[in-house]
Amino acid sequence: MTARVKPFGRRTPHTVTLIGKPGCHLCDDARAVIARVCDELGVEWHEQSVLNDAELRDRYAEEIPVTLVDGRRHDYFTVDERRLRKALR
Question: What pTM value is reported for the model?
Answer without folding.
Answer: 0.84
